[in-house]
Amino acid sequence: MASRADSPLTSTDLAGAYSDIAAVAWAQQYRIMSPLIVDFLLGDRPLGEKAAVINAIGWNIDGTNNAEQFLVALARKKGKPPTHLDLGDLTPEELFLVGYLLALDDYLNLGPLSAQGGNDLWRSTPVQLLSKAAYALPENFTVQFVRSLVTGQAWFGSSWCALYLEPANVLANFPPKKRNLRPQAVQNAMEYLNLYESYCLQGDI
């Protein structure tokens, strides 16, 4: 049975199914936001591969600032100061990348980029960023599935049934042929998430 020490964000393995991709393998080994990783995320590779890279970079119990590092690079590409970037400057795909990075940066709290305020982008939480991306990309399985993991993380302290239902509902809405994430990545993630299904039958968390 899953334990409270686990969590949807720190225990779901998407990267393992993509370790044949050099950037994913590098991220698995070094777990830092290097120029190689930034270039990969800013490039035109499929979103499933980018999600795998972010998953490979992972998390740190002391927190990381990978989302901010990525935003600095994204701002440079767009020719704007990072603090002047707002939600409207980012594509849905970019909102997804920032949201997933930010969720792993601060998975215990799922807080915004800046606790001191700033504009709408810097005040947004991972759930808000990923929900906005998911609304704009309803047919993108990778976006919907990762959003479900982050939303499940938000439910972690209150409903273990909801933690399971979030990704399960996404799978139900996307037949395998419509999923832009490798089957092994989905299987790896669900091997952990399925541990929570029994809580839906028990009527408790």
Textual characterization of the structure:
The chain has 205 residues and is mostly helical. Helices cover 58% and strands 0% of the residues. The protein has helices spanning 8-11, 22-30, 35-42, 47-57, 66-78, 92-105, 120-123, 126-136, 141-155, 160-173, 183-193, 198-202. It is globular and about 50 Å long.
Shape: globular
Largest sheet: none
**Radius of gyration of CA atoms, rounded to a whole number:** 16 Å
N- to C-terminal distance: 13 Å
Q: Which residue ranges are poorly predicted, with pLDDT under 50 across at least 5 consecutive positions? A: 1-5
| DSSP helix fraction | 55-70%
Q: Would you tell me the overall average pLDDT?
A: 91
Task: Tally the helices.
Answer: 12
Which class of secondary structure composition applies to the elements? mainly alpha
As a percent range, the share of strand residues is under 5%
Number of strands: 0
| Strand/helix succession | HHHHHHHHHHHH
